[in-house]
Amino acid sequence: MPVTRTGQGQGDMAVYFDHRIEAPESSGAPSQLTWHPALPLLAVASSSRTGGGNVDVYLQQGEHVESCHIERPHQPTVLCWHPTKPVLVLGWENGDALLLTHPSGDQTALSSTHSVCITLLEWSSSGSRLVTGDQNGTLVVWKMDARGRLQGNYLVKHEYGKPLTCCIFRPASPGDDVAKLARASVSGDEAALDMFSWKGAPLKMGPQEGLAFYISTADGKVHCVDEHCKTNMLFTVEGAIKKLIFLEKREALAVITDNLMLSQYSLGPEGGAQEFMKVKLSSKSGQNVDIVWTESGLLITATGEQVVRLWDLERDDNYVLPLDESLGFEKGEIVNCVSYCAAKDTLAAGTSQGRIAVWRMVHGGGSRGDAKVQWKLQTPTEIGGNVVQLQWGSSLNLLGANNSDTVLILSEHVMSAHYGQQVAAVQLTPKQLSVTQFSSGAHLALQSDIHVKGVCATKDSVAVWSGKQITVYELAGTSLHSIGSFPCDSHIVAAHGENLYTVEPNRVQIRTQQGTVKQLLTFSKAEGNPVLLSVCQSYLVVGTDTAHVRVFDLSRRDAKAHCSAKNLSDQIANLGALRSVRCNATGSQVSILISQVNGRPDHKVFFYDVEMDTVTHFDFFTGRPSSGISQPEESERQQFEGTELSGRCPLSHFWDESEPRLFVCETVPISSEASSSRFLDMTDVSVVTLFCTQEHGLLLQDCFPKPSGLQALLALDVPYYYFSCKPGETDTGTPDAAPTASPRQAEPARSSAGQLPHMVSRRALRDFVGLEKCERATRDAMLNFSFYLTIGDMDEAFKAIKLIKSKAVWENMARMCVKTRRLDVARVCLGNMGNARAAKALKEAEGEPEPEAQVAMLAVQLGMLEDAEKLYKGCKRYDLLNNFYQASGQWQQALETAESRDRIHLRTTYYNYAKYLESMGEKTHALTYYENSDTHRVEVPRMLQDDTKSLEIYVNKMKDKNIYKWWAQYLESQSDMDSALHFYERAQDYLSLVRVHCYMGNIDKASEIANDTGDRAASYHLARHYEGHDDIKQAVHFYTRAQAYNNAIRLCKENSLDDQLMNLALLSNPEDMMEAACYYEEKGTHMDRAVALFHKAGYFSKALELAFATQQFAALQLIAEDLNENSDPALLARCSDFFITHSQYDKAVELLVAAKKYHQALELCVTQNLTITEGLADRMTVTDSKDLSEQARKELLESIADCCMRQGNYHLATKKYTQAGNKAKAMRALLKSGDTEKIIFFANVSRQKELFIMAANYLQSLDWQKNPEILKTIIGFYTKGRAPELLAGFYEVCAQVEIDDYQNYEKALDALSEAFKCISKAKDSTSAKQEARLADLQHKITLIKKFVQARRLYAEDAGEAVRLCEALLDEPELDPAVRIGDAYGFVVEHHCQQGNFQVAYRKLEELQKLLPAQNIRYYISQASLEALQREMGVPIHRQDNRLGGKEEDEVEEDLSVS
Q1: Is 674 a residue whose pLDDT tops 60?
Q2: CA separation for the pair 997, 981 (Å, rounded)
Q3: Following DSSP, what letter does each residue of 1355-1400 receive, concatenated?
């Protein structure tokens, strides 16, 4: 048998078992084959060796069904299986057609309706109609029953006159119930979608079956036969029709003719057809063409070329799939036939060299038109001969292949592999395995005599089985020999010790290695049939088809139940079936993978805790465990879990062989939760390790991508993961670059048979790198270390490994410290590693404020660059990130970081990059970055100094003054003075220009440059030159231009240039002025200049001394103006005496104050009557107690205030009295100023009784009658000043004003009442004087009350009121309480109103006698007087005349007012 092996899309290694059909001897070369759509039944037509033809039916592995053998003298032409029933219809070249039923072999002939070769046979979608057609164009429609049996004669017969070529049934339009379901599916109803997409309850379609069909003829006509069997021609094309395709999405019909012309017709509702596309398909002429149509819209053709051609009709795209010689195809190999399997997205093609090429469609990448992205060619399967026909068929997706000699049935089988107790067995071919014994390093080949469907390895034996037979091989040293082989139908086998465990309905058999059944483990009907077995240490876990799990203890002679059966259906929702079960080394935990009800693999791993009888899970789609399971709070690991583990689905799972807590799982990404398993992306497999404990639940320990050279995970046996290798690829063991996965060296087993490939590779767990050969104690310590690290308990982890000397362990713990950010532990780790450099770097990093920045430095030292990068980004330390990028040579990232995030170091980054480029010899690029860093003026000339041509070009191009200067200096050093002068001039370096001109003797030119530019350095250089040549005048001139005045002064003194000396000294600094002044003083001439210079230089005493000595009063005046309080007091006194002598008293006072002689200054102000300004007063009133005692200061302030009072400056006097603390005097000063507002404010602020009284007394002098606010203030001040007598007096005054001015006795009464109250409250109210005053007040109040009462009573009882008033007139001392005039006026007015003019006149005369000097009009109204005069006939005006004209106006005014 040939070695037939190919890669499998799911990522597992797959093998094709090829079974040659057991053809009867009478059968010759096969002519055609056809699979039943659902059942594993293959019908093969062949020529008979006796000249006729045979038809045979074969089973899955090629077994011949003898009852279904038909042999006839004619050749069979067409074979077609019923869609669901095991019924085959056969057409023969003589026109016979018959039905063959499997397995009975019953034959039913169709009535003789055809007389020539049958050309087509077609069933309707449910098998209720059968269409037969022949070479003459006769078409017959037959009706069949539900069992596939013929019902009576044919329904209809049509004659088309030409050979019939193709027939296709039109799919039925869904009924209402299905249409609703379809709409629900599209809108996202998953249950509705499941009914369409997955196996489950069959969708009830009712009577919906497409009975209409299309028929084509050899002359290019297409006819439509409706459900009532009425025929109608649709259209005609050129040439015989080879293929009919119904495009369901477009409601269109595609036609391919024998010359490969493709036409597409849209079908109208009335039965018409309209062509909308026509295209010629590429082909090689003269070859048979094989055409396949897929439901996804692909047209696949094999036209005798070296490629397969594909047309995507939906996207209107086409491409080819070539054969790859590197995979084993030969040059010039022709593709004869193709077949497509939709269930597996697999395309198979048969070649002329007996090979079967298989392409797998890769989902999710690239456009459909990209052949390289879309289809992946596998390693070919070799069957020999010339493959002329291929067909996928049955629900098992079997491939039938006709190689012109025989037919082979190929069934895909995932290559078996198993690891147990340091022995790994991996299938290479259907009958060959590679066995690796890791304990001894032996590498053996096992050749079996059966097709291996499964393998199970233990330390002493390897068991293989085919599903019908089990063979056991013993491992003896470096050899394998069979110790037992027996028939058994178990599809799964497990081994422990010398026992084998097999399954049969409702029980597990425990057998010896020779097959003897030792014990039966029975399962109840509810518990179901065992279908899954797994052994770990001495525990067996069994999973059944009813989702029950049982664990058995195998440690004793007989297996004992470890726990009762657990029904997982009660615990897991949507459970369809168990996919895989595994238990841990102590039998305490069982992990389960399941399929959902709809057949999809579930994205959770379930964990059954045997002791607690609980089920938990880890969901790889969300990346989280089930709720309620504790998780450590270290955020780094959980973020890792959330991002790297989400959106995935578990593929396989294992527990460690000896550590019960450690669990590993292979996961693959899925695009959505509803994705099908067939769309899993097998190129991105992650290996996830978890710790599973009762206390801490499920904890992520590690996660790393499966290396590309490895095929699948086989087992976890600390300290290694075991993987199977891909065929044809070797795992080089390249260290994994991912920071989370430490370097894991692959260790292929040593080979004793060089021709066999290494099929198993092992990789150390992250925490065991460098400790692969450790003893058990170390291994346990490391496991505890790993566990404590995972739960975040660094202290316990540290204790676990403190005795381990391996540097690799400490390095690994230091790496974990990056994750946990435990720098204290990291320091100990670095010490144990002996990594002094890293320890020093970590200590230096402690200065950084962010903990992440310190951890990042640790990561850098440990080579965990990606972690360092993330940490720097996380704490936003872009400056350190920039340095990190530079140090690691990631210059583009460094530049991007500097430009966007770290602009403060942008120029530094440019500079460092330029230095790097220069070191790499890339000077052109370096030049650009030197310019960006703004260091090009120095760095570029330095860099290019050996390349003068390039440098000169650069200098001229840049037009930069600094670079011009550098270049000019270079030229000067080369003695090229003219060029140097040119570039100095362009650089505007006037010093260098003057220097070179002086060197060359061009003094005039140098002078011209210095004068024109005014450059100080150039002028100085030129002055030195002139001085050296004794040209003093020019030297002084250019020193002056250079502002080097000391040098100019020096020359003037040396050469007696006194006039210039004065000007230069005044321009220069004080030291030079002092020097020049001394020079003038020594010479004894120009003493005025000496005084002026001493003064200007700030030496006032010296200037004054010299001025007094030389009697320069004008100069003295100037000097005195610059004196202040910081000057020498003796100097100030001397100057003040000078000013007094010269009667300049104001200046003298200023100087006396500056000298702090305040009393003298004040005396001078008084004697000379100098006005004291506020500024002068403030300067005299010092606050520094060093100069004056507090008492002396107060006296000084009072003296200043007294002076101000005399000068009439009352406000300033108030201020100074206040500063001296004498508020009474301050108030008096204010009273003199008459500033009412300030008086009120000062009284309120001072809050002294005397001041309140003084202020109130002052306010009484104002017009308080017209200003109620002042009135209130007076009352308030007397009240605050506690002067009730004064307040009472004020109230009396108020009362008198009310009587005299307004005759308002009511208000006067109120005021007198208040006055009475005030005197009553006075402290000495019991004294005789006070009592007399109170009595007087009481008397006045009584009189006024009587008068007020009489006036009020008048309106009610006028007579009584007048009587009261007349009685009042008899009271002694009536006036001033009630004016007599007011009382008499009241009576006269009454009598006038009553008409008693006689009485009125008499009373008037009495009044005139009592008050002869007063005007009676003041008391009596004008109307009453005129009435009296009129009635009595007495002129009254004469009395008026006596009053004189002076008061007339006033009285008139008063009367008018009243």
Answers
A1: no
A2: 8
A3: TT-HHHHHHHHHHHHTSTT-TTTS-HHHHHHHHHHHHHHHT-HHHH
pLDDT band at 818; cut points 50, 70, 90: confident
pLDDT band at 217 (very low <50, low <70, confident <90, very high): very high
Q: Tell me how crowded residue 1194 is: count the other CB atoms within 10 A of its CB.
A: 16
Lowest model confidence (mean pLDDT) among 678-692, 780-794, 1108-1122: 1108-1122
Residue 5 has pLDDT above 50, yes or no: no
- At 496-516, the pLDDT tens digits run 988 999 998 888 999 998 888
Is the pLDDT assigned to residue 1349 strictly greater than 70? yes
The CB density around residue 15, as the number of other CB atoms within 10 Å, is 27
Distance CA 1040, CA 1023 (A): 9
- Cα(1075)–Cα(1052) distance, integer angstroms: 12
Its sign, for the CA torsion 790, 791, 794, 795, is negative
Rounded Cα distance, 955 and 1203, in Å: 82
- Any idea which residue has 């860093």 for tokens? 933
- For residue 370, name the pLDDT band (cuts at 50, 70, 90): very low
Strand partners, 107: 100
Nearest to 574 by CA among 603, 551, 549, 550: 603
The tokens for 1193 are 């200061």
Residue 103 to residue 1404: CA distance in whole angstroms: 164
Rounded to whole angstroms, the Cα distance separating 1126 from 1118 reads 17
The pTM is what? 0.53
State residue 753's pLDDT score.
39
Percent of the chain with pLDDT over 70: 74
Give the amino acid at 589.
Q
Take residue 438 and report the two structure tokens written for it.
């890791």
Reference 1347, options 1295, 1394, 1382, 1389; nearest CA is: 1382
Say which residue the tokens 């293929």 belong to.
Answer: 243
Average pLDDT, the chain: 77
Extract long-range pairs of 979-986: CB within 8 Å, 24+ residues apart: 983/955, 986/961
> Is residue 1289 over pLDDT 80?
no
Show Cβ contacts of residue 386 under 8 Å, excluding neighbours closer than 6 positions: 336, 352, 353, 354, 403, 404
Amino acid, single-letter form, for residue 318: N
Span of 326-335, 1052-1061, 1195-1204 with lowest mean pLDDT: 1195-1204
Q: 1045 burial class (0-12, 13-18, 19+ CB within 10 angstroms)?
A: buried
Torsional sign, CA 841, 842, 844, 848: positive
Q: Helix and strand tally (H, E) in the chain? A: 48, 63
Q: Cβ distance 384 to 411 under 8 Å?
A: no
| Structure token digits, residue 546 | 């009813």
Letter for the amino acid at 301? T
Cα-based distances in Å from 459 to 432, 443, 455: 19, 14, 13
**Burial letters 834-862, b for 16+ CB under 10 A, else e:** ebeebbeebeebeebebebbbbbbbbbbb
Helix or strand run (H / E) with residue 1131: helix 1129-1141
- N- to C-terminal Cα distance for the chain? 150
CB 1321 within 8 A of CB 1284: yes
Instruction: Give the pLDDT confidence score for residue 635 in this predicted structure.
Output: 40
Q: In the numeric block, which tokens belong to residue 833?
A: 């590693």
Cβ pair 1381, 1418 in contact under 8 A: yes
Whether the pLDDT of residue 1221 is over 50: the answer is yes
Provide Rg for the chain, Cα atoms.
Answer: 63
Residues 6+ apart with CB under 8 A from 876: none
Tokens representing 83 are 């869609």
Mention every residue, 6+ apart, whose C-beta is less than 8 A from residue 153: 111
| Stronger pLDDT, 982 or 1204, i.e. the higher one | 982
pLDDT for position 1324: 63
Helix (H, G, I), strand (E, B) or coil at 538: coil
Arithmetic mean of pLDDT, 358-381: 66
